[in-house]
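Dear support,

I submitted the protein below through the web form. The confirmation email said the job was done, but the results page showed an empty box. After a refresh the structure appeared. I'm attaching both so you can tell me whether what I see now is the final result or a partial one.
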Amino acid sequence: PETILLDPATEVGRDTIINGSVQVTGNSTIGRNTLLETAVVMQKCTLGARAMIGAHSVLHNCTVEAEEHIPPLTYKVG
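What the results page shows now:
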């Protein structure tokens, strides 16, 4: 969708779902089968396979482990 911003350096794994209004910047990596819900903002992060990031969460310079679920409205700094 037009409302997604992905930095060209971002790596996105297979079968990942990225909902609208998501912004991913700063050399981030998104594992396979991962879900980014609406309006997630992520910078310089690594997401493991099958991670789920809740809506309106902000992640900066952090690692989310495989199968970890981040609840909506979370602010996480590595």
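Response: this is the final, complete result; the empty box was a page-load delay. Residues 5-66 form a domain with the UDP N-Acetylglucosamine Acyltransferase; domain 1 fold (CATH 2.160.10.10).
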